[in-house]
Amino acid sequence: MKFFLDTADLAHIEEAAGWGVVAGVTTNPTLYARTGGKLADFPSHILRICALIEGPVSAEAVGETRGEIVEQGRELAALDSHVVVKVPTTIEGLAATKVLADEGIDVNMTLCFSVPQAILAARAGAAYVSPFVGRFDDISEDGIARLAEVIEAVSLYDFGHTVEIIAASLRSAHHVTQAALLGADIATVPFGVLQKLIKHPLTDRGLASFAADWEKVAKA
Ligand code: E4P
Description:
Helices cover 52% and strands 17% of the residues. The protein is of the alpha/beta class. The chain has an 8-stranded parallel β-barrel, surrounded by 8 helices. The longest helix has 19 residues, at 201-219. The N and C termini lie far apart (45 Å). Bound molecules: erythose-4-phosphate (E4P). The site of erythose-4-phosphate has 12 residues, from helix 7. Erythose-4-phosphate (E4P) binds next to helix 7.
């Protein structure tokens, strides 16, 4: 499983890039809004992310019609070869994905919540499909069980092109563990979750005892 960072925060991306484990970045309008960025600065912001990360950077096309999504998608894809156009899993999104994919533009279909949505996204030509987990948990449903269904269903078919499942809306180390065990191709995680993933109390305890024993060696 690869790790993507689910943020538009440049400081967090720069910091996590240095850890050597971040294979890509996913952004969305909410994540960009959190940076305080202006609409006009969005393209340059995406370019700055691309300069920090050697891998796919999802930037969302925010249009209502297939024409608007395609137009924005083309503009975003033209920014940098790493840009993946994020498109909502709707009828207009499907139609736009087909056009963009036929032009050789990688699409990440987002806001996917069901098996049929995921299969349709893959059929339309999406290179990435993003089933959301945490938003199911938010409404007292089992997001991991829904993710498992999508991974299993997509794995049953040949779509004629590579389709990678991005486990999205992950909010905890538990979500990431389950996504890994289910065979998700990618987990996209907020910076805070990525920080928590490497922590373990036994690692800390082991380090403390090694340090204490090494001090004894130094004094001997
Ligand atoms: C995925 O690409 C989305 O940006 C993200 O995972 C949504 O997460 P949330 O449900 O925590 O907002």
